[in-house]
Amino acid sequence: MKLYLRMLGNSYQQNIAYKANVLMNLMGQILGLFIQISVWVALYGGSQGVNSNIGFVSIQEMIYYVILSTGISMIIGNQVIEQMDGKIKSGIIAMDLIKPMNFFVNILCETLGNNFFRITFQLTPLILIGFFIFDMTIPSFTNMMLFIISLINSFILNFIISFILGIIGFWYLSVWHFSRLLEDVVRLFGGIWIPLWFFPKSLVVVSSFLPFQYIYYVPINIYLEKLSLNKSFEMLTSQYIWILLLSGLTYVLWRKGINSLVIQGG
Amino acid sequence: MSLISVNNLTKQFQRPIRQEGFTGAVKDLFHRQYEYKTAVNDISFQINQGEIVGYLGPNGAGKSTTIKMMVGILVPTAGSVTVNELIPYKNRKIHAKNIGVVFGQRTQLWWDIPVTESLLLMKYMYKIPNDQYRKNIELFSDILDLHEFKNTAVRQLSLGQRMRADLCAALLHDPKILFLDEPTIGLDVVVKEKIREFIKEINKVRQTTVVLTTHDMDDVEKLCSRVIVIDHGQIMYDGNISHLKDKYGSDEIITIEPEHNHDLISLRDKLLSLNVMDTKIKDLKLQITYNKGDINSMQILSKIMSESSIIDFTIQPCEIDEVIRRMYTENSLKGKLKI
Amino acid sequence: MHYIQLYSRFILIYLKTRLEYRFAFFMDILIQIITFFVMFLGLWIMLNHFQTIRGWTFYEVLFLYNLNILSHGISGMFFMSPMRQLEAMVQNGEFDGILTRPINPLPLLIFKQFQHAYIGHVLLGIGSLILCINKLNLELSGLNIVMLILVLIGATLIQSAIMIMTGCVSFWFVKATSLSNTIIYDLRRFLNYPLSIYNKFIQFLLTFVIPYGFINFYPSLLFLNKEGEVLFTASFQYGTLIVGLLLYMLSITIWSVAVNKYQSTGS
After folding, report:
1. Are A32 and C189 within 8 A, CB to CB?
2. Is A265 inside any structural domain?
3. Residue A188 is nearest to which of C31, C42, C183, comparing CB atoms?
4. What is the pLDDT of residues A13-50, one digit of tens each?
5. Which tens digits make up the pLDDT trace of C130-141?
6. What keywords is this UniProt entry annotated with (chain A) (predicted)?
7. C45 to chain A: which residues are within 8 Å by CB?
8. Residue B28, pLDDT score
9. Which domain holds residue C62?
10. Is residue A222 pLDDT above 50, yes or no?
11. Residue C266, in any domain of the structure
12. CA torsion angle for A170, A176, A181, A183 (degrees, to 10)?
């Protein structure tokens, strides 16, 4: 445990070395936020609210949605696919497998280190912007708790999905294809960019069969109190089911990947 | 008229001095201070067609700066370089057709493209006529054994293979002069030998002038008819190797293995009467260092043979890197004395 | 002429080599197409629900988007890889080798790399541009076609010029290109929507400082007859080619200053 904490700390500190990068990243995020808010304000075109799949949505709520989605991406984002790709291509993975620690936890710690870093240096400014410039409010205590739980689930879900695509690197050379694909699919069906509120019925159905909406859309809706308590629990349950299913898949693929590594000798 | 003419060449670099801390950074922003470093200081030499010249010196002596000015990458601060009657940096593109360049471990070829195709692109780039190209490819492939990897992408080649491919590419357009920066660094003995053979061959057949920098003294001994030694931006020596050795390195070492170990010490004592510089016992062998001007090897050997029987002996001439090392220390001593 | 000949030979050999790994080659292109398609679908979802964004319909926004993606794709094929790698080349001395060839350094860098993934951008850009023209019932007179081609040339020049200028940064500063890249690429995201939805500061910035607006927003006003959207002056609608040429000339000047600087300082 101590070892893992230490690794977490290391990757946190490595980030500090790239101060300028962090600043630029933050600027990029804030520019993105600014673009999204401008877009929604223009789409609303002066009206205070519009109808959607879940009823009336005010421009205020829409702006909160954009801020929340940016914030969540800072909390749960990861570079797992790139990390694993690097380790597999360079053969470092063989070294990592010999070490007396779990590879999965190893990657998880590095990710957590990165994410804590982003939380301190990127999320904090974002929260300040949200609360002081856009007058964001905190939801009820129950919803706040549910939000935090669902956010943790989102992190795990996103991590597992990335890990699965990372495993594909054992067999496939250009892994960036998959990381890009995931990015695109999550951007759309995860509701990062456009809430599922505004999706046509057919696309809502499609996305209900996919795990992606549980990553962004669900926690945001809980925060904005758009879901009833029952519905919220239902969504949390779905998150757990997806986590379970995908963990199983991860295990199977991981075994196969390791075997292929042993057979080919890296 | 010499092919390469370097006259009073000087290159100074200007480097900003960074001040420490935040206030320092702000100061830098408004008032930058510079320090000047003279990499090449008023050097002159001429190189004629057909010479193979070793350009030697320790790291940071100004070797690559000089080469870069001869190649046309750098503009001199003062003095002049003329190569084949052109000023390299002013006539960069025409000049480029007269020279071939291989820079150490960095390939000039297309990373993703197989060697043959890469060479073909060189043909188009230098507008090499068909028959010249065919003839050269045939000749070079034979000497350099390019056949074994000609269809491999450059990024998949080993260092030695890449070096051979780069050499071939640099010579396809029949340049008058070949500049080589550390051509054998990191290569195994067989490849080194092959590359040296190739350079010699090209020099002989084509009368190609070769200027090379190296840290490998075998390269120098086996290839160079002449060496130029540079240190602290100034030329320390310019001439042939044997003369360099006579001047700085007329010491030789004889190593003897006597039949009976107990002879070692008595032998050593007996040799003290001769005019040798040093005797040492190491690994049951006797090492005798002497100056060729004082005594020759036959005199020493006959003395030893008269005293005891020996199994084996070797005579080790002074190595060129040792010679240069001595030159440096002598130079730096002089420098210190001046102060 | 020699350059064109040389380049066409390089391209043929490059594509031939790449096509030996056919699957990877097509995947590279396909992934770009998917990204584009997601953008397409997203825009459609938005405008299906909201009808217009500040009066711009789905196909109008798509037209706008296409001009951006198409010009970016074309200049990206040639300039993206060399300019991304320039920083490393200057630092590890590989750029020295570039200066020993009988060809100018900028064309030579372009001859060394080709970014085939952008073929996807270009193909889809053209395809969906035709779709937009069709759906928007734009008149395809000879004049309009010539105008469109000139606009695309201008837009490509703007994109290329900005790529070249960001590359040049590495001749002066160490590790600065990643920073300038971030600024440039994040700013380019503004182009996905009409410039008129942003505040005056952004409009000014993207018109006079980094003239991205001329890539798609201003020429779109002309083709889509959006008199109501005019920013600053209506004559900007005709400005793309001029801005492109000027900016490209500026970038080439900066480039040669940068190479001269490299030749005198060696770093």
Report:
1. yes
2. no
3. C42
4. 776 656 666 777 788 888 889 999 999 999 998 888 88
5. 999 999 988 888
6. Membrane, Transmembrane, Transmembrane helix
7. 194, 198-200, 203
8. 62
9. 2-260
10. yes
11. no
12. 110
Residue A144 lies in a domain: yes
ipTM over 0.90: no
User: CA dihedral defined by C131, C135, C136, C140, rounded to 10 degrees?
Assistant: 60
B near A: at least 3 beta-carbon pairs less than 8 Å apart: no
Q: CA-to-CA distance for B199 and A41, rounded, in angstroms?
A: 71
Query: Any contact of B with C, at least 3 CB pairs below 8 A?
Result: yes
Which residue from C180, C248, C181 is spatially nearest to C214, judged by alpha carbons?
C248
C174 and A CB contact within 8 Å: no
Which of A35, A173, A199 minimises the CB distance to C189?
Answer: A35
Residue C107 distance to chain A (closest CA, Å): 28
Q: Is residue A264 part of a domain?
A: no
In chain B, what are the domains? 2-10+46-245 (3.40.50.300), 250-317 (3.30.70.980)
Residue-range definition of the domain harbouring residue A56: 2-259
pLDDT at C34 over 80: yes
pTM of the model: 0.84
For B261-282, what is each residue's pLDDT tens digit? 777 777 777 777 777 777 778 7
Q: How confident is the model at residue C226 (pLDDT cuts 50, 70, 90)?
A: confident
Residue C143 forms part of a structural domain: yes
The pLDDT of residue A104 is above 90: no
- The predicted-structure confidence for B81-100, as pLDDT tens digits, reads as follows 999 999 999 988 899 999 99
Q: Determine, for residues B14 and C5 on separate chains, whether the beta-carbon distance falls below 8 Å.
A: no
Domain assignment present for residue C123? The answer is yes
Nearest Cα residue to B184 out of B216, B143, B227:
B216
Helix (H), strand (E) at residue B142: helix B130-144
Length of chain C (residues): 267
Query: Within 13 Å, how many C-alpha atoms sit on residue B243's CB side?
Result: 10
- Enumerate the H helices of chain A as residue ranges: 2-16, 19-44, 59-76, 80-90, 92-98, 103-118, 124-128, 141-167, 176-189, 201-208, 217-223, 229-264
Average pLDDT over residues A230-240: 94
**Token pair belonging to C204:** 């000014």
Report yes or no on C114 lying in a domain: yes
Percentage of residues of chain C with pLDDT beyond 70: 97
Contacts C118 to A, Cβ<8 Å: none
Tally of structural domains, chain A: 1
What residues does B315 pair with on adjacent strands? Answer: B254
Count CB pairs under 8 A between chains A and C.
86
Q: Which residues of B lie closer than 8 Å to C, measured between beta carbons?
A: 13-14, 65, 68, 71-75, 89, 92-94, 96-97, 99, 101, 103, 106, 108, 110-114, 117, 120-121, 124-127, 153
For residue C197, the distance in angstroms to the closest alpha carbon of chain A comes to 6
Residue A107 resides in a domain: yes
Query: Which chain C residues are closer than 8 Å to A32 by Cβ?
Result: 186, 189
Q: Do chains A and C touch (3 or more CB pairs under 8 A)?
A: yes
| Chain C neighbors of B121, CB-CB under 8 A | 6, 9-10, 13, 111
pLDDT higher at A109 or C248: C248
Q: What is the pLDDT of residues B157-197, one digit of tens each?
A: 888 888 889 999 999 999 999 999 888 888 888 888 888 99
**Least trusted range by pLDDT, from A77-86, B62-71, B283-292:** B283-292
Decide if C51 touches A, using CB distance below 8 A: no
* Total number of domains constituting chain C: 1
Distance from CA of C105 to the nearest CA of A (A): 30
Residue A244's pLDDT band (cuts 50, 70, 90):
very high
The CA angle B290-B294-B297, to the nearest 5 degrees, is 55
Measured in angstroms, the CA of C5 and the nearest CA of chain A are apart by 32
Residue of B132, B124, B146 lying closest to C101 (CA atoms): B124
* Bridge partners for B249 per DSSP: none
Smallest CA–CA distance, residue A45 to chain C, in Å, is 7
